[in-house]
Amino acid sequence: MPRKASKFTKSEITRAVKAATAAGLDIASVKVAPDGTIVIIPGAPSIKVIGEVNTNPWDADNETAP
């Protein structure tokens, strides 16, 4: 049995995000409902970075090398 056709496309999401950005909104997240409704949640992204992102010990040794 074949899959159902998608109720939304990548280009529709891209268009909605670009329009919101052009309107001056910061986008926290994008949700797509099962019926294909695209909801853009405004606000700052909720990404939390704790400490150094790249904690490879090899990189630390190379920074202190002459």
Question: For the report, how would you describe the main beta sheet?
Answer: 2 strands, antiparallel
Number of helices: 2
Class from helix and strand fractions = alpha+beta
**Helix percent band:** 25-40%
The outline comes out as extended
Oligomer: single chain
Strand content: 15-25%
Overview of the structural elements:
- The protein has helices at 10-22, 57-64; strands at residues 27-32, 38-42.
- The termini are far apart.
- Helices cover 32% and strands 17% of the residues.
- A two-stranded antiparallel ribbon has the order 1-2.
- It has a domain at 1-46.
- By secondary structure, the protein is of the alpha+beta class.
- The model has no long low-confidence stretch (mean pLDDT 79).
- It contains two helices and two strands; from the N terminus they run αββα.
In short:
The protein has a domain at 1-46. Helix content is 32%, strand content 17%. The protein has helices at 10-22, 57-64, and strands spanning 27-32, 38-42.
Structural descriptors:
2 strands; alpha+beta; single chain; 17% strand; two-stranded antiparallel sheet; 66 residues
Question: Any chance you could write out the topology, listing elements then pairs?
Answer:
Blueprint: H1 10-22, E1 27-32, E2 38-42, H2 57-64
Antiparallel strand pairs: 1-2
